[in-house]
């Protein structure tokens, strides 16, 4: 057998065969191309098939290094790509990403493979890390969500989804036979967690606003009083930007007889986790309340060139989840292995520049612009809804997919939404609206299309279809 280190029957290491040459190379390392079968075409049901647009990776010619042709080709591809990114960034309204940032000062760090694998609070053997930045960022969020430095544990995740996967996992480890409760408008990652962890999951109805319906929550809790409750609370739902009433959720649990050792609450603050603390009327997300964890996406309101997130939980919970890993000289309490070490530096940079006060101003601006946009839509005869604590404006789905694609709107059923982030100015909203009004004149001309009724999605008062207009 070729291979080093194989133990013989008596425990001795078998010597390598004499003809073994570790430096021998395979003569032709380029594998044959895989022909696409004529009969079996790739079936893609949703969206566009990216395979038709893909930039093939081609094998360099032997003399490419001398002619420089390859470098020139790659430079031209990248330059075209940059142009298209600039264009796509200009016309982006549908996803909750703040695209306005300048991290030029950090470009000097691109040459380093920064990896925070393992626990943020325990230095591993790998020295090219950014834990000092990561813990600084975590402390900032811990202060925002009111938990002492020596009482929390957290880490920077790859995204809000990972925060949900972690928060729900901690809940499951603390209450192993708990049932997961989540409103039907929760992000799909919550239901993904239930599937991954094979947890029983109960979906709770929502109000028209998208907020969890605590009457239904109570009724469902009463059906399963013998099992602990692990509850996902939305600090901003994906489609309608609804903020669940955390205080009412806690009261419902307590009124139904669930003592504090019988429930665990994870707050999914992916969207508005960083906005709500600055809105006076919003239910406060705070570890002074009986919650177990909070997560937020870093690339959304903060703005960051790569997806990332923050997850904070109570230190007391994390010991049930973690193992020591000798190979890392660290503890493994995270979901992933390798962790992006650049992302903490990006967040640290913005948090330092803006501070709590800077974020507060941006939140106010977004809420103001969102109200402006909702009012203008309605003046133009477009049915629209805006939750009081939200900057997600929901309105009638446009009838033209080209228009939807241009503005990168997220649509569901008869509704679409625009999420007003700090980079979305009144000017951009006006441009969008003017184009929408023009298009609508074409769509509805000669009754080509009918105006959508969105009453079942957002309630009759927000719908301006012929049936509900004026009601
Ligand atoms: C409410 C909510 N939770 C979780 C997520 C997932 O966040 P991410 O895209 O960062 O994984 C989203 C994404 O939009 C969201 O809206």
Automatic annotation (TrEMBL):
Catalysed transformations (reactions): L-serine + H(+) = ethanolamine + CO2
GO biological process entries: carboxylic acid metabolic process
Amino-acid biosynthesis among keywords: no
PROSITE patterns: DDC_GAD_HDC_YDC
InterPro entries (UniProt xref): Group_II_Decarboxylase, PyrdxlP-dep_de-COase, PyrdxlP-dep_Trfase, PyrdxlP-dep_Trfase_major, PyrdxlP-dep_Trfase_small, Pyridoxal-P_BS
Entry annotated with the keyword Zinc: no
Keywords from the named record: Decarboxylase, Lyase, Pyridoxal phosphate
A molecular-function term among this protein's GO annotations: carboxy-lyase activity
Location of N6-(pyridoxal phosphate)lysine modifications: 300
Cofactor(s) the protein requires to work: pyridoxal 5'-phosphate
A Pfam family this chain is assigned to: Pyridoxal_deC
Family in the record: Belongs to the group II decarboxylase family.
Protein name: Serine decarboxylase 1
Gene: LOC107468624
């Amino acid at each position: 057998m070729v291979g080093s280190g194989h133990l013989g029957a008596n425990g001795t290491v078998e010597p390598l065969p004499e003809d073994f040459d570790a430096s021998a190379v395979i003569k032709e390392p380029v594998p044959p191309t895989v022909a696409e079968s004529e009969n079996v075409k790739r079936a893609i049901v949703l969206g566009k098939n990216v395979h038709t647009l893909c930039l093939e990776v081609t094998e360099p010619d032997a003399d490419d290094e001398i002619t420089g042709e390859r470098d020139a080709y790659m430079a031209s591809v990248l330059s075209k790509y940059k142009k298209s990114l600039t264009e796509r960034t200009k016309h982006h309204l549908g996803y909750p990403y703040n695209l306005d940032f300048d991290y030029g000062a950090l470009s000097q760090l691109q040459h380093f493979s920064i990896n925070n694998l393992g626990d943020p609070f325990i230095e591993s053997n790998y020295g090219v890390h950014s834990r000092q930045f990561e813990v600084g960022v975590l402390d900032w969020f811990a202060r925002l969500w009111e938990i002492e430095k020596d009482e929390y544990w957290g880490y920077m995740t790859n995204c809000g989804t990972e925060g949900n996967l972690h928060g729900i996992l901690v809940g499951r480890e603390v209450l192993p036979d708990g049932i997961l409760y989540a409103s039907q408008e929760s992000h799909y990652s919550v239901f993904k967690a239930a599937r991954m962890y094979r947890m029983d999951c109960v979906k709770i109805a929502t109000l028209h606003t998208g907020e969890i319906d605590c009457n239904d929550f109570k009724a469902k809790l009463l059906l399963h009083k013998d099992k602990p409750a692990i509850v996902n609370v939305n600090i901003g739902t994906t489609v309608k930007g609804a903020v669940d009433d955390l205080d009412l959720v806690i009261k419902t649990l307590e009124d139904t007889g669930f003592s504090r050792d019988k429930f665990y609450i994870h707050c999914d603050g992916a969207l508005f986790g960083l906005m709500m603390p600055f809105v006076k009327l919003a239910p406060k997300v705070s570890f002074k309340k009986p919650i177990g964890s909070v997560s937020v996406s870093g690339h959304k309101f903060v703005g960051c060139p790569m997806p990332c997130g923050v997850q904070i939980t109570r230190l007391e919970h994390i010991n049930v989840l973690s193992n020591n890993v000798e190979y890392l000289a660290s503890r493994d309490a995270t979901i992933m292995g390798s962790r992006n070490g650049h992302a903490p530096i990006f967040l640290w940079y913005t948090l330092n520049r803006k501070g709590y006060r800077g974020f507060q101003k941006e939140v106010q601006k977004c809420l103001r612009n969102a109200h402006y946009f909702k009012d203008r839509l309605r003046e133009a005869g477009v049915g629209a809804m805006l939750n009081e604590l939200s900057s997600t404006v929901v309105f009638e789905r446009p009838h033209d997919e080209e228009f939807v694609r241009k503005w990168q709107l997220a649509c569901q059923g008869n509704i679409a939404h625009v999420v007003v982030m700090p980079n979305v100015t009144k000017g951009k909203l006006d441009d969008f609206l003017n184009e929408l009004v023009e298009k609508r004149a074409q769509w509805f001309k000669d009754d080509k299309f009918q105006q959508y009724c969105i009453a079942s999605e957002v309630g009759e008062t927000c719908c301006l279809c012929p049936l509900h207009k004026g009601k």
